């Protein structure tokens, strides 16, 4: 198999960009965006296939996706954070619309009317409840770590592992978990200022987290497909309670928020239609 430019799925650049932007927003999951884009199972298979004989095919899928994620993280982190600082509710409502828009697609793919039993609905409720609980831990902002030693490197590695393990799961936000453990401000600082000595342990943790969690997810998708989908739908549904920011005091801002919900729903519809044409 030849390694060439034609093999690379260049469309994954914009897909990765959307996933990268979502990973900057606490409460929003890159895994959820992967589901919106219709590439979630291929993402899991690609990560698991890096060390197989078909590694070239999987890298052709993953490399542009990773480049898109990294470009979004490094080039757009300041813009996204500015929007999030000045219009936090409107940003959240945009993603809320995206998440609402994806739920019908997930239900259709799971064929829930034919396949779901009491067991599946119990898994759905449990997953939604557990994700919804994370909304209780959003308060408080930790100090940014700007000096580094051996203990800090270990903390960064573990934080990267935790964040990537979460971000590959639909509905569970890596940024939200970093916020809960007090590492989100440090994460944003490291990315926006490109702190190389901190990026290395953080990046290694992210890689290990993705490799291990993807193997776990692949196993459950292969062995318990519909149960896993019930969990995924529950995770996505539960994330609605985490992402929902409440309303502003301003009528105009609230009107904009409501408008952006419908924009997000329509964007999810268009993305789903575009991605499932192939």
TrEMBL record:
Which domain of life, per UniProt? Bacteria
Signal sequence: where? none
Has keyword Signal? Answer: no
What Pfam families does the record tag this protein with?
Answer: VCA0040-like
Keyword Transcription among UniProt keywords: no
Kindly list the residue ranges recorded as spanning the membrane. Answer: 20-40, 61-84, 90-107, 119-138, 150-169, 229-247, 253-272
Keywords attached to this entry? Membrane, Transmembrane, Transmembrane helix
What is the protein named? Membrane protein
Native source species: Alkalibacillus filiformis
